[in-house]
Every structure is written in C-alpha cells, then in structure tokens.
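Quick illustration for those who missed Monday's session on complexes.
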Amino acid sequence: MGACGKAQPRPVVLVGLMGAGKSSVGRRLAVALGRDFVDADDAIVAAAGMSIPDIFEVYGEPAFRDLERRVVLRLLAGEHGVIALGGGAFLDAEIRREVKRRAVSVWLRADLDTLVERTARRPGKRPLLMRGDPREILRELMERRYPVYAEADLVVDTGPGPVEQVVRQVLDRLAVSERAR
Ligand code: S3P
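Prediction with shikimate-3-phosphate bound:
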C-alpha cells in the first residue's frame, strides 16, 4: 500500500537475451505507463562504481552474479514502475521467485539474427560475447535460457521492426492480463 492507502501497481519486469531491446522498450513503456524506469545493469554499475566488463574482468562472473542478485532484489523491493533485467538475471532462482511474487514479467523474445545485429552495435559492452563468436554464443544461450524465460507471465516477440510496435504489444498484453486478474 502507498502512503495514501492506494495499492501500488506491481512493477513490470522485462526479461530476455542481450539485444532483445529490454532497455529501449522499458524506457518507452515507462513513459507510456507514467511510471519510472530502472535498468538493472545501470544500477549494478552504480553500486560497483565500475563497468560490467570491468566487474567481469577484475572479480569474475560469479561475483557479478552475486552483486546482480543483491541489486535486483533491492530494486524489486522498491516501488519501481518498469525494471529491465540483464539477460542472465532471470536465470537466478531467487530472482525468479521474487519476480513471480512481486511483479508482472514480460519476456521479449527475439530471433537470433536480431540479437546478433543489435549486440554488434556495441561490441565492447557485453563480456559474455567477447569469449568467442557472438552468433554461436547467442545461439547456445537461446537454447539454454529460452525454456527459463518462458516462465515469464507474458511473451512478446521482437524483431527488426520499430521499438514502438513492441511497446504497443506489451501494453496490449498487460491490459489483457490485468483484465484477467
Ligand atoms: C548478461 C547480460 C547483460 C549484462 C551482463 C550479463 C547475460 O545485460 O547483465 O553482461 O548474462 O546475459 P543485457 O541483457 O542488458 O545486455
């Protein structure tokens, strides 16, 4: 309950692979809903005082995942409107449990070509994709992660089309799911 006794709407949590458009969709979705937007990766960078590639390089992936868990659980406990998770966060069982309990989750499901094309725009940003051929890595991550992302409440397909179209689809699904509650 908020201070005025009105129930706070649940946050919308966006999940999906790197390059699915979680941040760009999330930012616009928040504007459309008149709520705030928070990017979990940015919150991790702020908490650590260093970039994600640097966290991976200096402390390793397990330390990044620990920090990610702490930051995301804190964000979920706050009264945020839209939260974009990093691609690996929903794989964590504790994060997944809290997302299910506190939020409505939307999987932005993208095809491999879209992910390869979008992630190639900023090649130094994602340490997991610097370990080999990005297309092969993304293909393998799709196989491993898509069954887990499928546990999200709603699914919206994204491709090379305009981001506004994806935002509209998310809004439509959210409206239908609210009516069904
Ligand atoms: C990761 C995705 C990244 C970032 C980190 C690890 C992953 O976030 O959290 O590089 O495991 O898929 P984006 O999905 O926002 O790129």
